[in-house]
Amino acid sequence: MLHRLSFRAMGSEMLAILDQDSEAVPPILNAIPAWFENWEQTFSRFRPTSELSRLNRTFDQPMKVSEAFWDVFQTALWADELSGGLVTPTILESMIEAGYDRPFDRLSRDQFDVITSPSETDHPLSMVVSDSDSKTINLPMGVGLDFGGVAKGWAAHQAVERLQQHGPCLVNAGGDIAVSGPRMDGSPWPVGVSNPFNVGANLSVLQVKRGGIATSGKDRRNWNRNGVFHHHIINPLTGLPAETDLLRVTMVAPTAMQAEAAAKTAFILGREKGLEWIESQPEFAGLMVLETGDVLQSRRMEKYL
After folding, report:
1. Does residue 163 sit within a domain?
2. Is residue 118 part of a domain?
3. Which of 12, 57, 61, 99 is deepest in the core (most CB within 10 A)?
């Protein structure tokens, strides 16, 4: 029997599903919102007392971080390497200058100051000094971190790691989805890919037994600034919201963290380079929705349809 719990955390809608023989609601489900609250207090750049906010106020001196923070930081380093620097946490100043300076549900979509030039304070991640023995991170002056989707993918993965001890499960953290393994009857989990041009309808339904699914795009977290369209996915090469012919990208990968980083990378690269990049990654499968409404998919996506 499928037991479900919906709640809100990290500025997004969350869903946890646990497959069990028993009809009784397992107590572990009720513990999940507290897990996400703890993680949000660690990784949110919008909470002044969070561990991330404290680090972003600490320059030119090492700050010891928690095990969870260190784990997400290492995930961010991996994403930066995978993407060739396109998915990096050192985009905080560009995010703020683009207008994303508060939780998205508190953003006014129409009232912003005049846009400034691209941020000159974003730096390569190599300028951030870290030490694995002491678990310390040292930010140079003017550099701030934003973990964004990396933290959500990590949180979905961590929740599934805990929840799977009680049965097959799926956790959806605002679109970053982790799947523990096949359902109790051995079947895959059906995961709908919504149609951005037809609310309430799906483009397709993926059949996933294990791994991660994530979607990145500009059709949801966006706003107008002085009549100019902006979205939350920054291209660090320009310091501005990525200019791309894609509306969104959905990826399937071994983990939710990998899927999130891969979806964002392909989105920034655009249709041609993005699809070529996906095909070069043997463990990834992708589905692209173009601004025109056309849909492209990588060769390996066929196994999930």
Report:
1. no
2. yes
3. 99
Residue 16 reports pLDDT greater than 90: yes
pLDDT at 283: 98
In the chain, the number of structural domains is 1
- Residue 123 counted as domain residue: yes
DSSP state at residue 271: H
Per-residue pLDDT of 80-93, as tens digits, reads 999 999 999 998 88
**108-117 own/partner pairs: CB under 8 Å, 24+ apart:** 108/223, 109/222, 109/223, 109/224, 110/223, 110/224, 112/223, 112/224, 112/225, 112/226, 114/226, 115/225, 115/226, 115/228
- What number of other Cβ atoms are within 10 A of residue 173's Cβ? 30
pTM of the full structure: 0.89
Find the domain containing 62 and state its range. 51-146
Edge-first strand order for the sheet with 169-173 is 2-9, 12-19, 169-173, 176-179, 211-217, 246-253, 285-290, 295-297
**Interval 49-63: pLDDT, tens:** 999 999 999 999 999
CATH number of the domain encompassing residue 134: 1.10.3980.10
User: How high is the mean pLDDT of the chain?
Assistant: 90
